[in-house]
Design brief:
The protein is an alpha+beta fold. The chain folds into three domains: 2-55, Structural Genomics Hypothetical 15.5 Kd Protein In mrcA-pckA Intergenic Region, Chain A (Roll); 63-125 and 212-237, 2-Layer Sandwich (Alpha-Beta Plaits), CATH 3.30.70.580; 130-209, Alpha-L RNA-binding motif (Alpha-Beta Plaits). It contains six helices and 17 strands. Belongs to the pseudouridine synthase RsuA family.
């Protein structure tokens, strides 16, 4: 017997955390009976488990790296009919994104049907570094960039120390290119950090996730992660 949220996550339906929400909302049935109690257990081999009326079955785990273009939603579906990252992956598996990139942000995002893997990478206590390249309005001073390195106060609390590097500043065009590396995953965090020092983002791209880069990919393209990359990500997450 295993916890119901773990079974749902391993089946590739969603992450374990989201599975807990589905259970609480009464959207999960075991052998025809709605189960709403967290911590409930089932036998994935003999019990019939349904999510939103659809029986689940354990899928082989798959792992993809996508170069997300701007104008694509980091979600499984979108009520407004906008294109989603899952539509860009050629697979018959039910994959979903690990974390999010804003609609207007391009760059590296991972998709999988492995709920445990996704949950591990997204857990706040694990510090996987993510590097962004931002084109900002104006040319930030060294002092302003130092405040980002030390951590800056936002409406949801102070940010952790970041690595910041000025790539290029153009006073004539009144803009600059800044590289920013963080390990947190707050909503629109990079944009809010740069706006907080008076230099709003004009364009943003995630260049790196841990040791993974976009090398060899153009916007809209994807590739499967190699087994050793998946293993290394797991090791990186728990160190």
């Amino acid at each position: 017997m295993e916890r119901l949220q773990k079974i749902i996550a391993q089946a590739g339906v969603t992450s374990r955390r989201k599975a807990e929400t589905l259970i609480g909302e009464g959207r999960v049935k075991v052998n025809g009976t709605v189960v709403k109690e967290l911590g409930s257990k089932a036998d994935p081999g003999t019990d019939e488990i349904e999510v939103d009326g659809v029986p689940i079955g354990k899928e082989e785990p798959v792992y993809f790296l996508l170069y997300k273009p701007q104008g694509v939603i980091s979600s499984v579906d979108d009520h407004h009919g906008r294109k989603t990252v899952t539509e860009m992956i050629a697979t018959d598996k039910r994959v979903y994104p690990v974390g999010r990139l804003d609609y207007d942000t391009s760059g590296l995002i991972i998709l999988t049907n492995d709920g445990d893997f996704a949950n591990t990478l997204m857990h706040p206590k694990f510090r996987i570094h993510k590097t962004y390249i931002a084109k900002v309005k104006g040319v930030p001073s060294k002092q302003k960039l130092k405040t980002l390195e030390k951590g800056i106060e936002l409406e949801d609390g102070k940010t952790a120390p970041a690595k910041v590097k000025m790539i290029k500043g153009n006073k004539q065009k009144d803009n600059a290119i800044v590289e920013l590396t963080i390990h947190e995953g707050r909503n629109r965090q990079v944009r809010r950090m740069l706006e907080a020092i008076g230099h709003p983002v004009e364009k943003l791209k995630r260049e790196q996730y841990g040791f993974l880069t976009l090398k060899g990919l153009n916007a809209g393209e994807f590739r499967e992660l190699k087994p050793h990359e998946v293993k290394k990500l797991r090791e990186l997450a728990v160190t």
